UniProtKB/TrEMBL annotation:
Key words of the record: Cell wall, Cell wall biogenesis/degradation, Glycosidase, Hydrolase, Secreted, Signal
Catalytic residues of the enzyme: H335
Organism from which the protein derives: Malus baccata (Siberian crab apple)
Subcellular location: Secreted, Cell wall
Keyword ATP-binding belongs to the record: no
Protein name (Swiss-Prot/TrEMBL): Uncharacterized protein
Regions of compositional bias (Basic residues) in chain numbering: 442-452
Domain of life of the source: Eukaryota
Keyword flag Cytoplasm: no
Family from the record: Belongs to the glycosyl hydrolase 28 family.
Lineage: Eukaryota, Viridiplantae, Streptophyta, Embryophyta, Tracheophyta
């Protein structure tokens, strides 16, 4: 062309631009990988910075603070038991019961805690104590550390063996609850000498807590159950509850499983506005005192959509409890959903506003039950509703027992068969083939005259009117509504109230049971009532006593 001008080489420019784009893309990808790797390292090693989850919570993983699974423990001890210059005994906001500061009665709100990972300078702990120290360090960093934003403690997949621990508040964040996400399988120490107080995991003085996940707390109570009734075992009386919530407010507990607790699965004391939902609390039907949830001195508690199979009450509502809701709970085996026992100790507080609905009981010893002791303690249980309940082969579907805890005597008659007597009651329930008259056998009692124990195994709790010392607890404003299903014993409704404080305002509406026990000779259902002012509506099967 004229003037010596040449057009640009368009193909070369395109090639160079393409190469530059590929280089920039590769660099960006490498940066992302490096950042991800770095964050993964920080997440696992417990460095000062932790990753943020999808909700922008800072995540504190217990393994980042020295916790090891059982498999890892087999490969060598974990000697970490300090955080910075603070030993585990000195950590604010947590501790191991029995160690200095372990109960964490005091608060150290101004203390700032190092969030760094395990220091390899400690030694001398058992595997359970090592993991306990690591769990506590994690809690302290998340709850009381330098970071004041929302935080989460993670127990990852794996099996962790751990002794008793205390997680104490208050936490730094005043606007967001601290989250504990349980993904793994947590096993309790079986050495009862490690438990200076009767709790395994304790959360206390926390306002705003979420415990979530599909993980499991295994109390490993099998050996303890064997010694609970042994007079020679002093340690058996110190059996710990698996999860204790002490003065915890505004809390959600969801999704977790508790297995084989040594004592109660869960225990709430002095709590307010707590919801327990979609939990599984499981122990064998013959395991002693393994209540699913025991509530005392608490209010605004909701128990929802859960499965409980225990050796004691699925839910027991103790003294000082108000505004309690239990809904959509499946119970069985177990002793039912009970209010009480009340009145065993002095100065117990009254109970009110209890609502139990849409629950199912399967093969339980009791269903809807209120129980008080006879003694010096006085109080009131009022405003109680059990409604829309299904009973499936329940031994005592509806019970008010104001002579709870009466001493039971077990004797043998001349045939060698057991005869069970409720001490202090006029009516006796026997299991035997005959009776003794004078010094010798005069005649054998016919099958039609004997008072046989239905099922042949256990004493019926429907054992006549309370006598002897009368309970001083007043039961009033009680409603049993739309309760139906099958009774495993002939006495389907037993209302045995106190002669000193008769029950008032007891209403039964649409009660409909059929017999489904082991007896083929007597299938009729009955009810029994003592010292109770009762009204009824709708269907009444069995016919209501007056």
């Amino acid at each position: 062309m004229s003037m010596g001008l040449r057009l640009p080489n368009m193909r070369g420019i395109a090639r160079r631009a393409s190469a530059k784009a590929v280089f920039l893309l590769g660099f960006a990808l490498l940066s992302c990988v490096a950042q991800s790797t770095s964050r993964g390292h920080l997440y696992r090693a417990g460095a000062r910075r932790s990753v943020l989850d999808a909700t922008n919570r800072k995540v504190f993983d217990v393994t980042a603070f020295g916790a090891k699974t059982e498999d890892q423990m087999k490969g060598g001890g974990n000697k970490a038991n300090v955080v910075g210059k603070l030993s585990v005994q000195e950590l604010p906001g947590g501790g191991i019961p029995g160690l200095p500061g372990g109960s964490a009665e005091e608060s150290f709100a101004d203390e700032k805690v190092d969030e760094s990972g395990p220091d390899e300078t400690g030694a001398g702990e058992s595997p359970e104590e090592e993991n306990g120290s690591a769990f506590i360090r994690t809690w302290v960093a998340a709850c009381r550390g330098n970071y004041s934003g929302p935080t989460k403690v993670v127990i990852p997949k794996g099996t962790f063996l751990i002794g008793p621990v205390v997680f104490q508040g208050p936490c730094n964040s005043s606007t967001e609850p601290i989250v504990v996400e349980v993904q793994g399988y947590v096993k309790a120490s079986t050495d009862l000498s490690q438990y200076s107080s009767p709790e395994w995991f304790t959360f206390e003085l926390v306002d705003g807590l979420i415990i979530t996940g599909d993980g499991t707390f295994d109390g490993q109570g099998q050996n303890v159950w064997k010694t609970r009734d042994s007079k020679e075992s002093s340690s058996a009386s110190n059996a710990p509850s698996s999860l204790k919530f002490n003065k915890v407010n505004n809390t959600l507990i969801e999704g977790i499983t508790s297995l084989n607790s040594k004592f109660f699965h869960t225990h709430m004391f002095g709590c307010k506005n707590v919801t327990m939902s979609n939990v599984h609390l499981i122990a064998p039907g013959d395991s002693p005192n393994t209540d699913g949830l025991h509530i005392s001195t608490s209010n605004q508690i909701k128990v929802l959509n859960s499965v409980m199979a225990t050796g004691d009450d699925c839910v027991s509502i103790g003294q000082g409890s108000h505004d309690i809701t239990v809904k959509n709970v499946t119970c069985g085996p177990g002793h039912g959903i009970s209010i009480g026992s009340l009145g065993k100790y002095k100065d117990e507080l009254s109970v009110s506003q209890i609502y139990v609905s849409n629950c199912t009981f399967r093969n339980t010893t009791n269903g809807a039950r209120i129980k008080t002791w006879a003694g010096e303690s006085a109080g009131e249980a009022t405003g109680i509703i059990y409604e829309d309940i299904i009973m499936d082969q329940v031994q005592n579907p509806i019970v008010i027992d104001q002579n709870y805890g009466a001493k039971k005597k077990v004797k043998k008659n001349i045939f060698g068969n057991k005869k069970m007597v409720v001490s202090g009651n006029k009516k006796r329930v026997r299991a035997g083939l005959g009776k003794k008259v004078g010094a010798g056998l005069k005649k054998k009692v016919g099958a039609g005259k004997k008072k046989a124990l239905q099922g042949g195994k256990k004493k019926s709790e429907a054992a006549g009117p309370p006598s002897g010392p009368a309970s001083k607890w007043k039961i009033s404003d009680v409603h049993f509504r739309n309760i139906r299903g099958t009774s495993a014993r002939n006495v389907a409704v037993s209302l045995a109230c106190s002669s000193a404080k008769p029950c008032e305002g007891v209403e039964l509406t649409d009660i409909n049971f059929s017999y489904q026990g082991t007896s083929t000779k007597s299938t009729a259902l009955t009810s029994e009532c003592f010292n109770a002012k009762i009204t009824s509506k709708g269907v009444q099967n069995p016919p209501l006593c007056r």
